[in-house]
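TICKET: design request
STATUS: open
ATTACHED STRUCTURE:
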């Protein structure tokens, strides 16, 4: 039995509002309330995406960003970002 996408969407909106409130009242850099709210968004989004797919065969254009503990991945991403920015800002020569 799958959840109604509208219910899942409302849960996602609530999770976003809770994250905003936690961020606005952050007491320190690693505030556990902000981290919990962040994870709440990820969980609510996954439920919404699954409900949307089950009901309508649709997905969103969004992805959950997951940090990697692998330093090698971080170096690859750091090298990629400037190339991407350069490619997006270069004049079109076609």
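STATUS: resolved
RESOLUTION: sequence designed for all positions
ATTACHED SEQUENCE:
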């Amino acid at each position: 039995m799958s959840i109604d996408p509208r219910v899942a969407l409302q849960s996602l909106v609530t999770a976003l509002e809770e994250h905003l409130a936690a961020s606005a009242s952050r007491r320190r850099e690693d505030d556990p309330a902000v981290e919990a709210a962040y994870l709440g968004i990820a969980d609510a989004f996954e439920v919404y995406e699954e409900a949307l797919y089950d009901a309508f065969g649709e997905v969103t254009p969004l992805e959950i960003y997951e940090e990697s503990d692998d330093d090698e991945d971080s170096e690859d991403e750091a090298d990629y970002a400037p190339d991407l920015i350069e490619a997006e800002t270069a004049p079109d020569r076609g």
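CLOSING REMARK: Helices lie at 5-24, 32-56, 71-89. The chain has a mean pLDDT of 83.
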